[in-house]
């Protein structure tokens, strides 16, 4: 990947820009512990970054009916999301600096998220960055969510910028796999889950934070 060829950056949202994944994960874990519901949280971690359902057969180790527990968790997470939409959420290290540098270089910024678009807009607005993005594509806009490439391909189509001139920023394996399937270079900034070796090797780099990504684009600014 030549950073000078990049005309658009597609941002994941949860866990990449906003510190929400960790919040949801520990909220669900705490709820189950308080209610003495035995679950396997590694199964929950496996679906982070996707819009897919939890495998309740593997997740639920309690006597609760699967459908009851699943509904309970969905409602609990929705309540936590609503709280974050109202109160705001912490942004990840380096986000502000990266957005500023991309603006200086006139690089298009797009969101590609598994979160439903209305919620994504509210969360981005709660931290004052919704207007930074010209396009928001969510799993509700496509037939197949991550790890399928649909979200990222639609982002390229709407922005009229080809995949090879784009860059995906992701924190999760499903997102990184979606980028690869779309033929778009990807930088992984791990959050809760560190990518497996084969996924990490397929990425352009594994960054410690968005500050590492900002440094790549700062080179363009320096050379202008």
TrEMBL record:
TM segment ranges: none
Annotated coiled-coil segments of the chain: none
Domain of life: Bacteria
InterPro entries given in the database record: HAD-like_sf, HAD-SF_hydro_IA, HAD_2, HAD_sf, PGP-like_dom2
Protein name: HAD family phosphatase
Organism: Mediterraneibacter gnavus
Lineage: Bacteria, Bacillati, Bacillota, Clostridia, Lachnospirales
